[in-house]
Every structure is written in C-alpha cells, then in structure tokens.
Design brief:
The complex is a heterodimer of chains A (302) and B (172).
Chain A lengths: L2 H10 L4 H13 L1 H19 L6 H24 L3 H24 L2 H10 L16 H11 L7 H27 L4 H12 L6 H13 L3 H13 L4 H13 L3 H13 L6 H9 L5 H15 L4
Chain B lengths: L2 H9 L6 H17 L5 H17 L10 H19 L17 H16 L2 H11 L5 H8 L3 H24 L1
Helix pairs in contact in B: 2-3, 3-4, 4-7, 5-8, 6-8, 7-8
The chains are: A mainly alpha (302), B mainly alpha (172).
Chain lengths: 302, 172
C-alpha cells in the first residue's frame, strides 16, 4: 500500500489494530512523517468542526412539502389502475362463469334429478338406451354427458388471459396518451406508469425514444433515460442514448447519459466521451465524468 | 431501519418514512451545498429541492441500491441545475453564512472556506463527500467512477493541498 493510502486510512481510523501499531511506531521514528500526519489531522478535525447546523424553518418547510406530497399521492392512488382492481376483475369474470353455470344447472332440475338415478352404472362413452327408463331420463343423461355442458377450466383461463391482455393494452394506450400531454407533470406520470411495465410493446419504446429526442422539459428527458434503462437494452435504445449525448448541451442530461451508458456498458459511446472530455466548452464536471467513463469502459472486455 | 429500507418503503407509497431520511441527511446535504456556494439561503433551498426530488422520483429507486449514493446523485444534479440557472455564479468567492457562531469559530470557518475555495474541484468534491456525506471509499469511488485506491490517494492529496492553503490563509 502506498504511504498516501496508509496515512488516509490512519486519519480516518480505517487501519486494523496491528497496522495502526506498526504505523505509530513509524511515526515515533520519523519526525517528518509525524509532522505531516499531525498537520493533516488538524485540518481534518477543523473541517469536522466547521459543520453548519440546520434550523427550524428548514424543517418546517420540508414537513409542509411532505404533507403536500402525501395529499398528491392520495389523489394519484385514486386515479391509478390498482393491482387489486385487476384481480377483482378476474375474480368477477370467474364468478360470472360460475354463476352462469350454476343457473344453467338450476334451470334443468328434472335432468339433474334423473342424472342422480342413472349415476349408479359406470360411466360409458356411448350411452345405450336402457329399456326400463323413460325417454326423458335418457335425454337428460345425454344432455349432462354432452361435452358442451361441461364447465371448462381452460375457458376461464382464456378469459383471464384475454382480460390481462386488454388491461395491458389499456395501460399502454394511457401511457402513449400521457406522453403526448402538454403538461410536463402528466408526461412524467406517463413515464412512471411506463416504468412499471414488463416487456412493453415496441410502440411504447418508440414513444419513449421520441420523448427523449423531442421533449422540451429536462426533467421529462431525465426520467425517460431512467425508464429506457429499465427495459430490455436493445441496440436501438443504446444508439439513441449515444446519439442523445451528442445532441444535448445540458450538463445534467450529459451526466445522466454518461452514467447510464457506463452502467449499460455501451462501448460505442467511447468516441463521444473522448470528444466531450476534450471539448473545453463542456462543463468541467461533465468532462471529468467522461474521463472516468472512458477508463471504466476501456476495462470492459468483449 | 436502514436508509435503504426506509427509501424502499417511501418508493412503495409509505411517505412518512421520508421523514426518517430527512432527519438523517438534512445536515450533511446542507453542508454539502454550503461548501459549494456561499449563500445559506441558497443552500437551504437546494437541500429542500433534493428532498422534493427524492419524493417525486421515489419510483425510480431500486430496492437494495445504496441510498446515500442515490441521494447524492440527486444532490449533484440539483447543483448542476443551480449552476445552469445562475451562470454568473462566482464559485466560492464569499464566506458562507454558517448561522450563529462566536467570533473565533467564525474566523476559523472563514479560513477554512477560503482554503476550500481555492482547492481544485476534484479535491474539494472528494473531501465534501468524505466529510459531510460520511461516504465510504467504495461509495465515493462508485459516485466519482474511481477505484478505492485512487479515492484514498485523492483524499490524501486533497487534505495535503487544503492544509497548505489553510495554513497559508490563516497565517496571512
């Protein structure tokens, strides 16, 4: 370990007991090192003492904002499609099928009664007309054994699947419509819904890409980058993010894009990072971040 | 309750847990801004903005992610936005208003602030993260895109530089 790292660890109290003893022995025998460490310790302590305190006004402001946000949350929750509501719909569908089936049975009481009588012999695939039974009974047996009258579980699952598909389609339509809204907060709401989707349709991805390219609100664009990162990272999405980095001059957006591209390990962004790092017109912190991004991406092996 | 558990609860709609995070981070964030620009009123506003964004973008928090790193990303973005809206901002030219303090402490703050003002950005940031955000080397490395070894070296050099500036300023 370098001297610099040991001194930092010592001042921050990160050395192990054994390492600390060895280092303190070095300090007693090396007056130059001791002086340096003592001076640094003093600076570090002064820095610790120079901490400003918060005040009541600041607290009051925060708690007021929190209250406001809670009220907003209540309103949004009321508007949001709730998962329990979805399940309720499925349950209603199942109950509907069950009630229909039950009513069907209730509307043919004689048939059911006769069926009980004929239940004694083993069930046969083709029913022969027994001599001793009246015709109506035989008809009832034929009716109750007809495949059309059996409750089909697969029908219920099909209905649930259809409902699920319809729900997803509705969600996607709501998202697409919100993303086109004039109000930035509505567009952000659309992005929040989009972020909750699993495997969204290409139309949603395309709408997100359009939002990233064209939306005038920085917050909406930042939120779009986060949302796109959540989905399957296709080559198209990567290309769009890299392209956006060449287009924007907003330091916040540049920072978010660089961090996202590094997390997504997009090596194609290296030339752009290099351009940004060299460009003196670019914000200094962005240039530094681009520099460290180059380092991280360069370490990735294909 | 850990920061991460509290933030996860917030992201799931339990907004009351945001108060826990506010109480834990308000001081460190206030100082983070106070040492990057001089005005206490601004530092207070910027701190509020961080918590507002935390609430507004709570859905983007991913379970298990380090809250400290996440909230600091927000703080840095808030500060970038502030710089963008205040192009005439003259960095740390003035001494920050630290609230009520005695003369000696105020003088010490002044020296320290002047010394910090003269530090290169990369050094100032690493000290602020380490001191006022109480971030571990790993977290600083993650935030700044550096290895742990490089963070240690940078902290050391930042302190060395700060010491030189601090003692020069206070002996003037």
């Amino acid at each position: 370990m370098l001297n610099e790292q040991i001194i930092t660890d010592y001042l921050m109290g990160h050395l192990s007991e054994a390492e600390r003893i060895v280092f303190e022995q070095r300090l007693t025998s090396d007056p130059v090192l001791r002086k340096e460490v003592e001076e640094l310790r003093r600076v570090w302590q002064d820095l610790q003492n120079a901490e400003a305190e918060t005040d009541d006004e600041m607290d009051a402001l925060f708690y007021r904002s929190l209250q406001g946000e809670k009220m907003l949350e209540t309103t949004i929750v009321a508007l949001k499609p709730q998962p329990w509501l979805t399940y309720l719909k499925y349950a209603a569908a199942v109950a509907g099928v069950a009630i229909t089936f039950w009513l069907g049975r209730q509307s043919a009481p004689t048939q059911i009664e006769y069926r009980t009588i004929t239940a004694a012999p083993p069930v046969q695939k083709s029913i022969e007309r027994p001599q001793s039974l009246p015709e109506t009974v035989v008809e009832a047996v034929e009716l109750t054994n007809h495949p059309k009258n059996k409750p089909k579980e697969e029908t219920i699952s099909q209905q649930i699947a259809t409902l699920r598909r319809e729900m997803k389609m509705t969600q996607e339509l709501v998202i697409l419509s919100l993303l086109k809204d004039q109000s930035a907060s509505e567009r952000l709401k659309g992005l929040n819904y989009a972020a909750a989707l699993n495997n969204p349709k290409p139309a949603v991805i395309q709408a997100l890409i359009k939002t990233l390219r064209e939306d005038e609100s920085l917050n909406v664009r930042l939120s779009t980058i986060e949302t796109l990162e959540r989905f399957k990272q296709t080559d198209e999405v990567k290309k769009v993010l890299v392209n956006q980095l060449t287009q924007t001059s907003e330091p916040t957006e540049q920072t978010t894009l660089i961090e996202t591209l590094v997390r997504m390990r997009v090596k194609e962004s290296l030339p752009i990072f290099e351009q940004l790092q060299k460009d003196e017109k670019v914000d200094r912190s962005v240039r530094l971040l681009a520099g460290s991004g180059i380092g991280e991406l360069a370490m990735i092996t294909d | 309750m850990t920061d991460e558990q509290a933030m996860y609860a917030v992201s799931q709609g339990d907004l009351d847990k945001a108060a826990i995070l506010y109480e834990r981070y308000k001081k460190s964030l206030l100082n983070f801004f106070l040492y990057r620009q001089s005005d206490r009123e601004n530092a207070r506003d910027l701190t509020q903005q961080v918590f507002l964004r935390m609430l507004r973008y709570r859905h983007t928090y991913r379970e298990g992610a380090s809250f400290r790193t996440w909230v600091l990303e927000i703080a840095r973005n808030v500060f970038f936005d502030y710089l963008k809206q205040n192009p005439t901002y003259s960095d740390l030219a003035d001494v920050p208003d630290m609230g009520e303090s005695d003369d000696e402490t105020e003088e010490q703050h002044q020296y320290l602030h002047n010394a910090l003002a003269q530090l290169p950005d990369q050094y100032r940031e690493v000290l602020l993260l380490s001191r006022f955000q109480n971030m571990s080397y790993e977290e600083i490395g993650q935030t700044l895109g550096l290895s742990v070894a490089n963070v240690k070296v940078r902290v050391f050099r930042a302190m060395q530089k700060l010491r030189d500036l601090y003692f020069n300023v206070s002996s003037e």
